[in-house]
Amino acid sequence: MTNLPTDLKYAPSHEWVRLEKDNIVRVGITDFAQQELGDLVFIDLPKVGQKLTAQEQCAVVESVKTASDLFSPVSGEVVAINEAVGDEPELVNNDAFGTWLFCIKADDLSALDKLMNAEDYQNMIDE
């Protein structure tokens, strides 16, 4: 059992999501995902200003073992990216829940209702 933050929502594709003020949704990858991937060596993030739809592939994380697509949890516009992870992808390995990747200003927050809480995500990864 990992120690999952209960204030986050979780996607089946292993992104975590934090709703912030003004419909801003902060996105990262879970600790489970970074452990499965291994040492991250490259992260390709969406561009600021890019319009995304919910469930659209929008970023890639690459490790020494494999590459994995990331998906947007909501529809909206990318308003920020964490440039530090471009230079130091290992920040995600060091603190997956403390290292965000990008933020989206959501057009509609209803897509968040489809995401899992910490308990449901834990049950999914335990299966």
Q: What report would you give on this structure?
A:
With 127 residues, the chain is α+β, with helices and mostly antiparallel strands. It has a single domain, classed as RNA polymerase II/Efflux pump adaptor protein, barrel-sandwich hybrid domain (OB fold (Dihydrolipoamide Acetyltransferase, E2P), Beta Barrel), CATH 2.40.50. The protein contains four helices and nine strands. The strands form two sheets. Strands 1-2-3-9-8-5 form a six-stranded antiparallel beta sheet. Strand 6 (57-63) and strand 7 form a beta hairpin. The mean pLDDT is 95.
How would the blueprint of this fold be written?
Elements lengths: L8 E2 L4 E5 L4 E6 L1 H7 L2 E5 L6 E2 L4 E7 L3 E5 L4 E6 L1 H5 L2 H5 L7 E5 L11 H9 L1
Q: From the 3D coordinates, which CATH architecture would you assign?
A: Beta Barrel
The first-to-last residue Cα distance is 12 Å
**Care to count the β-strands?**
9
Order of helices and strands: EEEHEEEEEHHEH
The share of residues in helices is 10-25%
Mean pLDDT: 95
* Secondary-structure class: alpha+beta
CATH H-level homologous superfamily name: RNA polymerase II/Efflux pump adaptor protein, barrel-sandwich hybrid domain
Contiguous uncertain segments of 5+ residues: none
Strand order of the largest sheet: 1-2-3-9-8-5
- The gross shape turns out to be globular
